[in-house]
Each structure stands twice: as C-alpha cells, then as structure tokens.
Amino acid sequence: MSAPTLVAHGIRCLGVLGAGQMGMGIAMVSAVRAKVPVLIYDRSPEQVKKGLSLMDKLLDKDVNKGRLTTEQAKEAKERVEVVGAEAALKGLRDVDMVVEAVSENLQLKQAIFASLAAELRPDAILATNTSSISITKIAASAIPEGLKASSEEGKKAASRVVGLHFFNPVPVMKLVELISALQTSQETLDRARSFAIACGKEVTVSKDVPGFVSNALLMPFLNEAIMHLEKVGFNLIYHISYQVMELMTNKGIATRDDIDTTLKLGMNHPMGPLQLADFIGLDTCLAIQNTLYQGTGDSKYRPAVLLERMVDAGWLGKKSGKGFYDYN
Ligand code: 3HC
C-alpha cells in the first residue's frame, strides 16, 4: 500500500477542550511543534491554572536542556490563550479544529459535540481524544436536531468528526492514533493526520472498535495486572472489609512491587503496569475497561473489583496523590 499523501492541514487556530493532563499536553505540542495559536477552555478555572503552570515548567525545562531557545518558549507560551467562563464554547467559534479532551463519559462528549457543531464554522474539524468511546456515536451527536442522519446535510455534519488519540505524557509519547467514524470524510482524516504530523507525531490508524488498537491491547493487560494483585495483603486496601475481599477473584499471585518489577526488568517496559495505571488515572482505566466490557459483551474484559473499589475510594492514581503507589 502506498503512503498517504500529506495534505495541508489548514489549521490556523486550534481549540482544546479540557485542561487536564491530555488537553494541556495537546495544547503544548500544538503551540511548540505545529506553532499554531491555541485557545483552551475548561469549565474549571483552577484546572486551567494548574495546567498552564505545568506547561510553563515543562517549557522552562526545555529551555534549560537546550531543546528550545528562550524566544521559542516565550512564543509558544504566547500562542496559548485561555477562553473565559463567560464565553465558554462560544469562545472557540473561530477555530479551524477543536480537540476535545474531557473525561471518558459518552453523555458529556455527546452534549459537547452537539454544542460545538452549533457554535463552530461548518468546515471546522471536530476531533476527540477519546481513549475508547465510539467515534461514530460521537459523530452522530454533531448532527443538528431535525436533520436525518441519512440525509446529505446530516452526513456532511457528521463527516467532520474524527478520533485523534494522543498518549500520555503527550510531549514525550511519539504516537497519535487516528480513528475514522463511519461518517468521517477523507478530507477530515487527511487534515487531522497532517496536523498530528505537524505536532511531531507518528500516526497509526485504527478502525472504530472499543478501545481502538491501543487500549484494546493495553487495558486488558493493566486490568490483568490488577487482578494478579487482588487478595494479596496489599497495604493500601487493608481496611476493606473481608466480605468485599471475598468478592474479589481468587488470584493474589504477587505483590505490587513484584508485578511491576517483573514487567520492568523482565520485559523492558519503562514502567510496570500498576504504576502505568496510576499514571493514566484509575478512573480513566476503569472507564475504558467498562467500554471494552460493554462494547464487546465479552466477560474477559470484566474490570477488576479492586480497580472499581479504588475508584470508589477516590484513589485515582498520581493525579489524586494515591493509587497503587503513594504520591504525597
Ligand atoms: N509530562 C511531560 N514530560 C514528562 C512527563 C510528563 N508527565 N513525565 C516525564 N516526562 C519527561 C521527563 O521530564 C523526561 O524529560 P527530560 O528528557 O527532559 O528529562 C522524560 O520524560 C523522561 O522522563 P524520566 O527520565 O524522568 O523518566 P523515565 O525515563 O521513567 O520516562 C516516561 C518517563 C517517558 C513517562 C516513561 O516512564 C514511559 O514511557 N512510561 C510509559 C508511558 C506510557 O506507556 N504512556 C502511554 C499511556 S496509555 C495512554 O496514554 C492512552 C490513554 O488513552 C489511556
């Protein structure tokens, strides 16, 4: 198969929705590598403040390490602007592409895409950084009410939605997974691919199946590692009742450190699966695992009970200070 021709992405201004670790990372590589102005919106001003200060720190480090000049870092910082709460999604009205990076919740994403479709120009690309949710479902929500999905206008409205899946930490990981909804046009795919390349990323393509290629392979591995830990005398869950422990699968094969060290030293993984799950966020891992479970109906994807309990407890990994490891 011949390599796809690289078309001009034509993105003169990017919108990013969600200032969490993924959204800020996407904003940063877009400003630094693709050199486009970025408008970022998050309904939590504190989250934006936190995200901007992390980006500043990362850019300063790039300067100290000689990867960027002071001038380049300053230009990149100046390219990133925050949209205020009053303007909200209306503040993204003039962007050429938006990348949505809010939490893994279908209803939330559907509501957002319905609003984006109403606010943005009809030629703007609506990309989602979802880790596992159906791009086809999200694209259907970009069709204005009253239009039939099978009508020419309905098909056109959904054709600008695409999956653009970045990896954490975005400034470091070299991959972007490109996912076409059933409705996505070739032009949308080509422009989204070109933009990811302009951000310095290599692009792989996956069909719109639960978890795509990346998370359909990664999440069962992380979930299995958590099942291997269940029932071991694990100090973080010592106060979970005996009954709850009984509900857990009867594995308990190794300790946290033995599981992670096995994969790090035995397979040369940069971090063990339990540390990686903490790093991704246990709520995100659970949401993806549930999408795989419900989307396929296959019991092999059942989320580990311990993963569910940790999310119930609010122990979401690195971002909350506690997960399989303690970060305080
Ligand atoms: N943001 C930005 N940069 C970061 C970072 C972060 N959160 N964490 C680490 N880095 C940088 C470090 O600052 C360092 O940069 P430097 O060269 O300027 O010093 C560089 O990454 C390497 O870091 P370290 O030397 O401190 O540590 P490591 O060698 O352990 O590397 C790592 C850190 C690159 C994160 C490595 O551990 C790794 O590759 N881990 C696996 C990450 C992974 O698998 N990500 C994919 C998750 S799945 C996903 O995102 C999909 C989603 O849908 C769930």
In short:
This protein has 328 residues and is of the alpha/beta class. It has 13 helices and 8 strands. The protein has an 8-stranded mixed sheet, sandwiched between helices.
- Compute the average pLDDT: 92
- SSE succession: EHEHHEEHEHHEEHEHHHHHH
Shape estimate: globular
What would you report as the Rg, rounded to the nearest angstrom?
21 Å
Distance between the termini: 50 Å
Strand order of the largest sheet: 3-2-1-4-5-6-7-8
Query: Segments where pLDDT lies below 50 for 5+ residues?
Result: none
Tell me the total number of β-strands.
8
Q: Total number of helical segments?
A: 13
Biggest sheet record? 8 strands, mixed
Tell me the β content.
Answer: 5-15%
Please identify the structural class as seen in this structure: alpha/beta
Helix content: 40-55%
What small-molecule ligands were found? Answer: 3-hydroxybutanoyl-coenzyme A
Question: What does this 3D model show about the protein?
Answer:
It contains 13 helices and eight strands. The longest helix is centred in the N-terminal third of the chain and has 20 residues, at about 45-65. It has an eight-stranded mixed β-sheet with strand order 3-2-1-4-5-6-7-8, sandwiched between helices. The relative contact order is 0.10. Helix 1 (about 20-30) packs across helix 2 (about 45-65) and helix 8 packs across helix 12 (about 280-295). With about 325 residues, it is of the alpha/beta class. About 45% of the residues lie in helices and about 10% in strands. The structure holds 3-hydroxybutanoyl-coenzyme A (3HC). 3-hydroxybutanoyl-coenzyme A binds near residues 58, 171, 214 and 218.
